[in-house]
Amino acid sequence: METKNYLKATVLDNPNFRKSAGLLSMIAFSLGNIIGSGILLLPAVTASMAGGLTPMIWLAGGLLLLPLVLVYSQLAKMYPVVGSKVRFVNVTHGKVLASTVGWLYLIGTLFVVPIEAEASLQYLSYIFPSLWSNGSPTPLGYGVEVALVSVIYFLVYMGIRTQSASVNVITYAKLGILTLYVGLVGILAFHSSNFSIPIQSKTSTLLEAIALTMFAYGGFRSAMVYAGESRNKDHTGKAILIAFLLSMAVYTLVPMVFIGSLTPSILGHGWGYVSKLTAPLTQSALIAGIPVLGALFIIDGIISPSGASLIGAGDISRYMYALVKVGSAPKILGKVSERRGIPVVPTLLSLIASVVLLFVSPTFEQSIGYLIAAHVLGYATGPISLFVLSSS
Prior knowledge:
Blueprint: H1 3-10, H2 23-34, H3 37-50, H4 54-78, H5 84-93, H6 95-124, E1 132-133, E2 136-137, H7 139-157, H8 160-188, H9 203-217, H10 222-225, H11 235-261, H12 264-267, H13 280-287, H14 291-325, H15 344-360, H16 364-391
Antiparallel strand pairs: 1-2
């Protein structure tokens, strides 16, 4: 069967998936996954590696990914079905690679929820030290993480309307907080001299810092997973591009303001000391004399990671649905509930897996490396898929 006819036959997806997401919601699904725990912790991590070059590191990471973003925005428009970023690989590369990519996405995304729960706990430990000890959660901390993960999967279980509304509120709330941070701290506590402090980093360290930005930017394709639930097939492609450009602005300005706000008492220990800050943006706001904004970032320590977790948890059931459609998973895992409008079984199984991973997954920084590796193969298929689909 020709590719064009295959696409025409498969674009009519399972009607039990509710077409409830508009353009703002689709933007929120991509933007909310890009701006997750990365915005809370990675500006400090990358600053410890690149010093005053950090804003350029984030801008470079975005520019390097921009061609891929353009590719996937076109693919999203051409193939607007649930789990499309797995299913178009089946069309252009065949079942074996589609299955490999799909399972890599699914396993990698399973790590997202525990990672984001750990990021939330780390921020909360700034005011509740009993949650964190010696670089890992305390028993009470693990209890809080389990509660956070359970709430996330409950919202996913309630269906796309509840999930979409929650994602919208969370995404645009944290975007508002970050806008306040850039505006207020940038005016009240910006020291341009901080950017002239020399760094000792090797070229390899700077390249590693750019690679870390890929973890944050990598969520741009999330809207594709929900493409079949958009009210307009053109929404997904536009949403991916708009969300990515917004995230580039955020990830360039926030690290710039963060570095500009640091005091000699912090930088006097060297750039490496910056990564030891427990709640970087909160501490930056306090340095600027804005305790209310600092408190908002403690709240955002739950909001930002939870938003990314909510999107990632919803991704998992849709990846499983896509794997069933390409013939790589049992059909029971792809059965869509008429009442919930989602595959319920993989959602419940994912909840169990995420809770287990809370106790056995590696640290935040190590997990980022695994996630980047898991997505490399998926990135590589995009340009070829676009060429094949455009030529058919």
